[in-house]
Structures are given as C-alpha cells and as structure tokens.
Amino acid sequence: xxxxxxxxxxxxxxxxxxxxxxxKPQADVYSLPxxxxxxxxxxxxxxxxxxxxxxxxxxFIKDDSNRWHCFGITRPWVPGDNxxxxxxxxxxxxxxxxxxxxxxxxxxxxxxxxxxVGDCGWAPSAVRIGQEYSLVGSHLGLATSADLxxxxxxxxxxxxxxxxxPYITFWDGTYYLLRCDGNGINLIMSKDFINWSDPVVIYxxxxxxxxxxxxxxxxxxxxxxxxxxxxxxxxxxTSGYCPRSYAYCSESPLDFHGKPxxxxxxxxxxxxxxDENGQWFMSTADYPHRGVSxxxxxxE
Length: 300
Hints:
Layout: E1 13-15, E2 20-23, E3 28-29, E4 35-36, E5 43-44, E6 49-50, E7 53-62, E8 68-76, E9 89-94, E10 110-115, E11 125-129, E12 132-136, E13 141-145, E14 152-156, E15 164-171, E16 174-181, E17 184-190, E18 200-203, E19 210-220, E20 223-232, E21 245-250, E22 261-265, E23 272-274, E24 280-285, E25 292-299
Antiparallel strand pairs: 1-25, 2-25, 3-6, 4-5, 7-8, 8-9, 9-10, 11-12, 12-13, 13-14, 15-16, 16-17, 17-18, 19-20, 20-21, 21-22, 23-24, 24-25
C-alpha cells in the first residue's frame, strides 16, 4: 500500500470477523460540573441522569484473577454534539470470566462506577508495574491502584513532549510512551517509569489538516506497527469521533516517516489486544456500535 518502501517482509493486519459489541454504557448521573459545548447548543448538567453515554479512547488490562478490564473516556451522548465537551469521567467495565476470546460476547462487560481521579478520564492508558496498576491520562496525569477498583491520584509523570492520547507498551525491558504532539506523534522511553528520555517525533502526516489521535504501537514478528486515528480538520463533515484509522510499519519504533501504509480501517480509537492463547483482536469505540466493540485480527 505504501510507496518507496524498503520493508519487504511486513505483515498486513486485517479484521477477519464481525464486530461484537461487548460493552454499552448504561444510564447514569452526570457528576462533573455543568458545562456547555463551544457553540452553546448543548449543555451537560451536573446531577442529571442521561440515558445514553458515548465512549472514546480506551485501554484494556487483566487483573490478578485473570479477569479483563476496560477503562476509557465517556460522556453523555447528546445528538448533534460530536466534540469533546462533557468529557472528564473514566468508564470502567469488566469482563465475564475466561480468556479475552471467551469474553468477546454481546454486551457482557459489566458497567462499574465511573472514575474521576486525576486525568484518567482523558484517554487513559493502563499498565501494570510490579503489584501496582497505573492509568496515565492526557497531560500525563497518573492514578494508581492495587486492585483496579480504588484509585489514588499520584500527580503527573515527569516527562517532556505532547499531552494527548497516551499509549504505553513494554518491550525488551523498556516502557514506550506515545502521545499526540500537535498533529504528529512523539515517543519517550523509560527503564523505570520514573526517568524518561527526551521526546522523539516518530510520525507526522504530510497534510497539516490531518490531526493524529489514539496512537498504538505493536511489536510483531520483528517489526513495529503504528496505528492511529485521523481527524481531518479540513473536513467539516467529520469530528473527534471519525471512524478512520491507519497502520504503518517500520523496522524501528523511533521512525515511521516515509514508512509504508499497510492497512486502513473503518474504526475509531482502536486498541490491539493479544489474548492468552496468542489470538489477536482489534477494538473500536462508538463505531459501528455505541460503546466498545471487538473483532478478530489476523496478520497476513
């Protein structure tokens, strides 16, 4: 799919089955302070119960009992408002017992009380370090937990760089933290999750109107794959919930400039998950179904 490509052995990630809507948020009370959208047409009112809620950037992690959990952005769904007003709460859903593959069943993930600690309601990424779980949100707000239910605000990570849509992965003894920076994506690294390298811009779209969102970095079969979601600021028909995502491939996690585009997906804010038996899956938020949906993924 790419041009000028020197990588000849890359694999193509493909969705190979139907989307299963594992989680749909239930009716709930809006607990944040009342706020209106920039155009003034929509108001999210504290104390009001809203029947429908949206999801956006999300993250998956497994607990000590091998039960899967999902955390992510949520807010009431009000038709006509496709921006980000009303965000700030973090949804928490947990799966039925079994492997991830076994938990991919229709609306089987249970809604738990929403979380408002730190920045965890802003595009959180989950990671386990020793016996402690962490959620890192936009602006690098850090919340920690011993059980994934009770969370403590731990301030912010001491790191430079962009401040949107963090994604954390651990590979070869190093934590890699991606964030959106302007309309590009930067990367910082750490051995101890305390001291971080200076940021490196690993990808920047050719078009200035292309806003990168929801980056994900996957190491597979000796190569690295960068997934990200597009918000084209020049296209007034789209919004922050645009279901259009891409995957690029590189030999190095530090540079995806000029590297091949290997796949395109009609999904929003995807996560890439490998289950206990090695099977791969992709998630999507609020498209094609309200909430979070999962489909099997193959590397072809």
